[in-house]
Amino acid sequence: MALDWMPRDNEQKNHMLHTDVHWGTDADAPCVVYEKRPLKDPKGNVQEGLYVAWIRLNNPKQYNSYTTDMVKGVIAGFENSSLDRSVVAVVFTATGPYSFCTGGNTKEYSEFYSQRPDEYGQYMELFNHMVDSILACKKPVICRVNGMRVAGGQEIGMACDLTIASDLAIFGQAGPRHGSAPDGGSSDFLPWMLSNEDAMWNCISCEMWSAYKMKAKALISKALPVLKIDGKWVRNPQVITDKYVEDGEIVYGEFKTGEEAKEARALVKEHQANADFELLDKEVDRIVWTFANLFPGCLIKSIDSIRMKKKYFWDICKNGNRHWLAANMGGEAFLGFGAFNTKKITGQDTIDFIKFRQNIADSRLWDMEMFAEVMGSPKE
Question: How far apart are CA 314 and CA 159, in angstroms?
């Protein structure tokens, strides 16, 4: 008797949640580009029917900061990759040699979301969904850091499973300096990854760390050179890449200072536009091939078991943080993002913090007159 109710070979259902309406091409910037690249073995042979999903932030003129529509594109990319049976792994990266992501688009924040707390709260629902989509993706996620990873860019990067970085990349937070708090993941993830005091300093100081310091602190997997000068790979000349002690502290990974730093910056500026990501991409390919040669079910169970530790505090904090970040759009965030957005007019990207604190000490009303006193004046 034929068992018509039994499953049939090669019968498939479409589990995709999103169409390509959320993605664009290089010409559509700002947007997210979603691409399925064929899986290749170490000899370059294509493995039929298997792919690596590349989710690329494409807003290079604004250092790949994400607009509201781009957040939707990232969510769509991760959710479709998660449900695509042909995808082996996801590579999360960005366009160009200068920036992976500098967080939310400050122009959009300043000119639309400032003083619209409810609107920003809705935006934060999308942001939280973006982080959730990374942490819930049923494929391993590699963050391919092609340049600076700062603020919200640092947070969505740390939500990924592994990070392989250009050694020219810098990493850090910007919140307390620009009117926000690193509550998009950093304040949840870093206490798991660093000592309590390193986590504290990294969150609040807005100090930028080099890729080598990030590697030394075990916050990324590898930092690889991307400058090729006269046919030879050159490590980031702006950073101390040999270990030595100065004033009782190991200074490996710290940025150089003085005339040495000035010369190094000039060298990087001369060559960074032509950065060569060959070594970076070879390492990404090596990791993807490792994933491809593991049982997929056992692989993602193991990954989820590790992710769970980051996800625990993210899940219990994200909703409360969403509400605070929304409310803050009527106060310090209004000032912080406004200052950053008008830096071409004033010549500075921060407020006068001392004057602001003095006004608070005097119990001044938080009104436009008080705000005007601490914002920069137009350049002559």
Answer: 10
